[in-house]
Amino acid sequence: MTALVDVRNVSHSFGTLKVLKDISLSIEPGSYTVLLGPSGSGKTTLLSILGGFVTPTDGKVFIGGEDCTAVPPARRPTTTVFQDYALFPHMSVGGNVGFGLRMRGVDGATRAARAREALALVGLADAFAKKPHQLSGGQRQRVALARALVVEPAVLLLDEPLGALDLKLRRQMQDELKSLQKRVGTAFVHVTHDQEEAMALADHCVVMNEGRIEDQGSPERVYARPATRFTASFMGESTLLPAKVVAAQDGTSSIVSSFGPIPLPSDAAPGSAIWLAIRPEHLKVGDTAVRLGTAKVEDVVFQGSFKRVLATSLDDPAVRFTLRLGAEARVRQGETVPLCCQASDIVVLAE
Length: 351
What we know:
Blueprint: E1 5-14, E2 17-27, E3 32-36, H1 43-51, E4 58-63, E5 66-67, E6 78-81, H2 93-97, H3 99-103, H4 108-121, H5 137-149, E7 155-159, H6 167-184, E8 187-192, H7 195-201, E9 204-209, E10 212-217, H8 219-224, H9 229-234, E11 239-247, E12 253-257, E13 260-262, E14 273-278, E15 284-285, E16 290-302, E17 306-313, E18 320-326, E19 336-341, E20 347-350
Parallel strand pairs: 3-8, 3-9, 6-7, 7-8
Antiparallel strand pairs: 1-2, 1-4, 4-5, 9-10, 11-12, 11-14, 12-13, 14-20, 15-19, 16-17, 16-19, 17-18
């Protein structure tokens, strides 16, 4: 499939500060791409470059096969939904939704009809004559979506659109955004720092750090088999164990950690320092499979369907385990427990 958006070797600097470093990225038609990363990772700058609000210092941006690198926002096939929604308070909801059509010279009757269709699409068919201040935060967010979609963009850009909503409404809007994207078939590119939000929405998850793409792929792959140590710790939680690759007498290589040999293959050369990542749900209390020594339970937090347990290794005090145990687990703060996991659940990462 030909990429709808093709970002080629894009770098950008604000003065002497380089915020994007040789970014290349392809976005497929009809996909939901999430740019995920901490503050300062460059995700919002990349979104601004896609939207035409920033021209990159180096590199090219192609949309639908056309070079849009220097094309202004109003002339490229994208629209942007901002975190603050940017609705005009003096206009009706219908006027807000139809504003982009008005700027394109569409007549009033057609604008009104298409605005009503867009509002119906986001579940606000009865809000056409209302003013934005008469709506809730979630409803105003839907109005902003309708305004962006009514002009039928090839790519819809969303700049942390759920950041101002409370947790319950944010989760509701995640479901609605995903459903809406599937119905309209437009490619969405969504910026967030929320890992849960990224996993709930993305077909294509792009993890960014310090101006670079650390990892990208389906959220399932990025979570289960992260490519880097940063991804393992930022996309969800992981216990990270330092380890080394050592040569065996028969000429093969094996992995050794402070807890002993780990039965996993490694392509790294003998003597290489590596890291092992284990997700919280894969750590168990017990001494079967791969044994990870004993640990002192520092904290137990009940979180409804599970308990989040923090424990410090007694064999290697530098290692702090994070476990996700069933809600019925009988683990108490201060006790000492043996820990283990399955070898297949350990991810080997390069140093």
